[in-house]
Amino acid sequence: MTSQPMTLLVIISETVLEDILIDEIMDLGARGYTITDARGRGTHGTRAGRWTQGGNIRIEVIGNAALCQRIVQRLQSAYEQNYGLLMYTTPIELQN
Predict the structure, then answer these.
(1) I need a labelling partner for 66 at 20 to 30 A (CA). Which of 5, 26, 33, 38 fits?
(2) Burial 8-42 (b: 16+ CB within 10 A, else e)
(3) % pLDDT > 70, the chain
(4) What is the DSSP-derived secondary structure letter of residue 28?
């Protein structure tokens, strides 16, 4: 089995940004992403996810650390001030 060190970037965002964020992520060099619906409670209040306009999504991107940092910097500067946006990275070992 071959493993490769990579970085996992997780973005929790308002659903309304989905198409915009995907365009940004791909334009910055990501090769792919995974999106799931997200519900919970945090600093932006409770997100029940019961309606499309008010829900949250979770976007996961795997790439090298430089790619993930570029994405974080771009999304912070463009969207963080006006939208609920939470991002974090963690080192991972890609197993394929």
Answers:
(1) 38
(2) ebbbbbbbbbeeebeebbeebebeebeeeebeeee
(3) 89
(4) T
pLDDT digits (tens, 9 = 90+) for 28-46: 999 999 999 998 777 765 5
6: Cβ contacts below 8 Å, ≥ 6 apart: 62, 63, 64, 91, 92, 93, 94
Residues 62 and 82: their CA atoms lie apart, in Å, by: 26
Res 47: pLDDT: 47
Contact in structure between 1 and 95 (CB atoms under 8 Å): yes
Separation CA 49–CA 52 (nearest Å): 7
